[in-house]
DNA sequence: CTGAAAGCGCTTACAG
DNA sequence: CTGAAAGCGCTTACAG
């Protein structure tokens, strides 16, 4: 037998009919004799005929593939986004081509090129940390290929985005701490130059303001790289300064964990003396002791939503190019912030 | 201007030459006048010409895409595998198309079909838990499409595989516990019907035998689903039975964590009274208290290796279809198993 | 009810 | 040094 997968031609030859007829028989085209139709279908079945998507793509000028540029697949949050993209894409009959930039600008640009060469029908992108120059993205827009940004907002680009409501997430976290009775709340902040970092600081401040608690700039500590160690050091310094502290809102879970370590070592009880809330809600939040209250980001939902916006773009349903879809976070309450009474209510 | 991306035809028309010439000029074909060559290249640059990979695929009968079937992208281990696949594939100029089966047989079969339709040059697959019937995979082999299995071994299929040395990983873990002075080591085992579960039990037993420690079947506790809760319950039962225990080897990290919880609650010290070793080495192993010694699986390396085997298949370099590449695990020592003296040596 | 032809974008053996 | 033609697998407007 012939090597490789069976084609329409193979079937046509065996049946002594034309390719056109086979093609039509395969797709229930009206004017086809039941007899031919039957014969074609049987043979297709027998040889496991599968339409050649490459040929179809060339003819239809559409590949039914969507390209994804993602900083790192290994990051938990991004892996949930990928999962959402995959599920939504598959549901709509699309395949997904993934490139990770590894946070490198050059690799991001190369990947965009590869995906454009592959003629993907659309691009879902979360830019790398290094990316400042947007020329490679502008080209995509210029050539009319639908693009949707997720998680990392890109300013000045004519494409829809899906992001998380970082302001509200931070606000909720801090408000929760206040409701628990905290008055002196420290914020372990992310780098100021990232939009998300700034948004969370804003949320922190607004929550304090709305509850008539004075904002103390000394209570906002920038943790640049968000490691555990960094947070341990920052927290140790704070605790030994004699400053009154009864709550910590960390802009990421690792930092929260570092804070918890320092707090425990200094002899304070969590949450009785100092409550702690983190951000991201990784799996380990429920595993540490005490378990960590955290702001959950809807990664899976973000992936699906980005896909949906993409399909709107592809089908020109969406006229509003500048759509920014903002997804709600959810505060997941655990032991590190909840007083006994509240915990009972949650876990009953 | 014309919508969509520029083609060879567009360039040919503008320059009033034939497509053949443009094609040749673009790829430094010898017999082309420097003048034509120059003109073509300038125009290509100007219009951001990118070869249409779809057309190339159709002509070359090869897509330079490799398909990946993976149970779940959200699982940390698998996300590292994906990362390895991505990096290796990109290095070789391949794109990666990913489908997650979500552990569903039906979805796995559908994904295989989609990928075969897309005419991927090869398939990297880790089968779903549900998969018993292998017909969909046999079809792939029959149609001559290279396939490589990773992580989950499939018996009776003519295709290379990459797996982790679960026997040795377990052996190392248990031997380490013995060297720490443990004599009564419990194994929280995985389900017997999975090959990996059986291999780890074998490793556990061999390590005991080689050190002349009698094997006690009561010390092997099956934890079917590997959750934390399950391990807590199993461990509680063991501890309250009055049985002497000074070491625990859990077949997965969550179970190890559960065991630690139960041990601490019962008033024992880790590692002084009871040492604990887990399996998988997730990020949280270094975050819990005490940090958890664990057997690290080389996911990233597995992804790369699977890719390399795939390329060998594609280029017919590999004549040995039944290759099984077994990757070494690495025991990552942390606090939960190492006595003071050892820890100092490690962390100094 | 069926077939021949053209075309999607590209390459290359064959002519000139 | 350059071009016309054929072909990768498929679909569909046009004829019959």
Overview of the structural elements:
The structure is a homodimer of 348-residue chains. With 348 residues, chain A is of the alpha/beta class. The first copy, chain A, contains 13 helices and twelve strands. Chain A has helices at residues 8-15, 19-26, 34-46, 53-60, 76-91, 105-117, 135-142, 166-179, 195-210, 228-240, 253-265, 299-314, 340-347, and strands spanning 65-70, 95-100, 122-125, 147-150, 161-164, 185-189, 220-222, 247-250, 275-280, 293-296, 324-327, 330-332. The interface between A and B is large, with 57 and 57 residues. The first copy, chain A, binds a DNA duplex (16 and 16 nucleotides) through helix 2 and helix 4.
Structural class of chain A comes to: alpha/beta
Helix count of chain A equals 13
- The CATH class name of the largest domain in chain A reads Alpha Beta
- Under the CATH scheme, the architecture of the largest domain in chain A is 3-Layer(aba) Sandwich
Alpha carbon gyration radius of chain A: 27 Å
Quaternary structure of the protein: homodimer
| Basic shape of chain A | elongated
What order do the helices and strands of chain A follow?
A: HHHHEHEHEHEEHEHEHEHEEHEEH
Query: Largest interface, and how many residues on either side?
Result: A-B, 57 and 57 residues
Give a quick rundown of the structure:
The structure is a homodimer of 348-residue chains. The first copy, chain A, is α/β, with parallel strands linked by helices and 348 residues long.
